[in-house]
Amino acid sequence: MPEEKNTKFCSNCGAEIDIKAEICPKCGVKQPLVPEKVSNWWYVLAIFLGIVGGIIAWAVNKDRNPKKAIRFLIVGLVLPAIYIIGILASIVLVSLGGAREKAKDARIMDDMSQLRSAIEIYYYDREEGFSGVDCFSTELSSICSDVKEYAGETPTIKSSTKNYCLYVKLPGGEYYCLTDVSSGRKTTISPGKSGYCDGITFSCP
Known about the structure:
Blueprint: E1 7-9, E2 16-18, H1 41-61, H2 66-127, H3 138-151, E3 156-159, E4 164-169, E5 175-179, E6 185-187
Antiparallel strand pairs: 1-2, 3-4, 4-5, 5-6
Helix pairs in contact: 1-2, 2-3
């Protein structure tokens, strides 16, 4: 095994001097720092302890190997920042997703209200009843298509001569239900269940 060299040559006069000498004893010129070999395990400390680990790794090695010590510090500072940015980005994405869902629900409910108004205008006022009302009629097909675009399904309409009930499932899983005598409302119970909007009872659960 070769012996470790404990000397170096002066950068000014070339004299062989101690490897740790900061000033040449022959000419008095300050010597450039010769960085010591530093273990990469210090990165592990910076990674797991973040800023604290980075500062410790830097403080211990700044005189032995300044450049590498700075790298330890950077890793300790940058990784926590990346984690924080990732968490904030996740929160923002979740919030945006929730906002988009609410906006979509609002659009569907608005279209459903328009559908209810159209039924009142085109059927009861003209035909004096609601029998046979459906989304295939010329007057309602366009609005039903708008609802389907956002809800993913065509609204269900149940009717009799004097009453009607319409509903659709919202993207979030709830239902939005309206009748000829009540304004729209959300419900977790399917209005198509027995006893609600079944062609006999025209009410929302």
